[in-house]
Amino acid sequence: MNTEQVQALIELLVSPSADIGGRDDAAMDLYATDDFRARAALLKVASDASTPDIVSASAGESPGLVAVATSRPLWESERAQLTPEARREYGVFHEIARTTAAPDRTGNSAEPR
0.70 exceeded by the pTM? Predict the structure, then answer.
């Protein structure tokens, strides 16, 4: 996925006026990149209580898929901000990622500074 495609998906995802199906698809498609901008947009949407449940769930699932693929799960502080729907979907994948990530088995080696 190139930079322009990532940016277009991010813009669609974060737009509250965009079609809910398009936003949901964008959230799911962003799992294919580990771009820091995509991660930030997914976290923003997955942490916003006004986000429709289906979009929030997909925005939580995508970082979970990235965590499994890269062994880099979300920080505990990031997970704590997720809506219940996003946290539930992320949690499915976090369990897989945390067993293969950091040696302390928390899924994190340390909080970001």
Answer: yes
